[in-house]
Amino acid sequence: MHSHVLLNNLEHQDLRVQHRFAAAFGDNQPAVAVYPSEFLQLQKEYAILFRQQDGQFYSTVLLGFAAGENLYLNDQLPSGWDARQLPASIEKGPFLIGFQRQPGQAEPTPVIHVDPAHPKVSTQRGQPLFLPEGGHSPYLEHMIDLLQRLHLGHQSQPAFFAAIEPLGLLRPISIEFSLDNGEKHRLLGNYCIDQQRLAQLSGAELERLNQSGALALLFAQVSSMSNIQTLIERKNDLSKGSLATRVAG
To answer: Which Pfam family name is an example for this entry (predicted)?
Structure first.
């Protein structure tokens, strides 16, 4: 169980973080949450889908088709990740944003927390968090920027869904396919943008979506759906590799 603590340059001067991705680090997740603010970058590599929890919609990217499967992991690559873009929730690793209320402040201040027990954290390997004189390392500055973007994405997500839900733009989707080896898969519980309904929107509705910034994100989601086929091809390649290993063995 992870336990995050407030990051500081006195207690954590020697901490390092391995900026790699692997199943041993807990990165073997078949889907991870993302925010609409990431859609324009992530659409190039991943299928963006929507899911619902406790009556609320949220965004995800599909990384695999089974529990514990992430088809973007590749231990032959230096980073361990086979894509040009990374979902921020994966890249952040052992960090998260917490909130601390200072005396006399009405609103709590965002602060960075780290999990010292996370498998990516070490005192021997990885990127240093602090410079010898105590300042932030370039890697930590990058993580601070990433966490700030995650925080802003979290804050803006309700407005995105509030803009599209009343227009009936979300529809359930069943993802069904067969691998080359005959293995069948079916994924339920996902939603995507209803392209037919999108095409039926009035000029005024489209204008409102455009002014809110949501329209470009809708088209990004639609475009991202082609990456499902790419992910199936990755799964086929993995299955063929596993079969070859069994035959060779």
So the answer is: SapC
